[in-house]
Amino acid sequence: MSDPVFDHEKKKLLDVNIAPSLIFTIQEPGKSVPTLPIDPAMIDKDKFELFNHFTYRIGKMIRLAELNLDKLQDFISLYFSVNDYETVCNINKKCRELLKHNPKNNFKDLTFGELRNVFSCILKTEERFSEVSELETPEKRNNFSKLYADYIVDRDSYTHGKLFFLYPEFRAVLRIKPPGREEHYVEISEDIIMENISLYYIIGKKLDVLSQILKT
Question: Which regions of 8-51 does DSSP assign to beta strands (E)?
Answer without folding.
Answer: 12-18, 21-22
